[in-house]
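User: As part of a screening pipeline, I want to sanity-check one entry by hand. Below is the sequence and the SMILES for zinc ion. Please return the complex as structure tokens so I can compare it with the automated output.
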Amino acid sequence: MRDQIVSRRPAGVRYFQSEEGRVILGLERANHAGHAPSWYGLTHTRAPAASPGSFHAIALMYTLSVGPRDTFVVRERGGFAWSIWHPPDKSVLIAAASAPHWAVATAASLLPLAWLAVRLRARRHRRRRSPGRCPTCGYDCRATPTRCPECGTASKPAEAAQPATTTTTTTAPPPR
Ligand SMILES: [Zn+2]
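Assistant: Here is the complex for your manual check:
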């Protein structure tokens, strides 16, 4: 089966489709003015998958209309593929990229992990910079303000003094 979501506009067409274990992202920049109003917009279609894979079918179709000075590239490797076609003036541009479902699923599952790693790193960084912590290793140095007992880093005088400054703002009443 092939599921396709297509966005049609006067300036071009974009589509996203899933079929035969892969997804294809396509972009077609061209003048599409003059269609019936119903032609434009976002549509979803489901149909039997083209055979062979439509990526090849489309690329093959292009080769018949490619001019001698056009840029036309089709690359495929390990289930990944991409193609681009445009004349020298780039008045028309047709591009598509394809990736297997497993690659998309892997990327989607790695993103939250990457986010988590960034968050943990930021937290660790924040901790090291918090008062009373060693700026090098993050060890709690409130008991030994002059030197970190864990890694030996000497504290700056300002940092060493910080835990002691329990700001007791006892504003005495003005003398009468
Ligand atoms: Zn330390």
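Points to compare against the pipeline: Strands lie at 2-9, 12-19, 22-29, 41-47, 71-77, 80-86, 93-100. The two ends are 91 Å apart (CA to CA).
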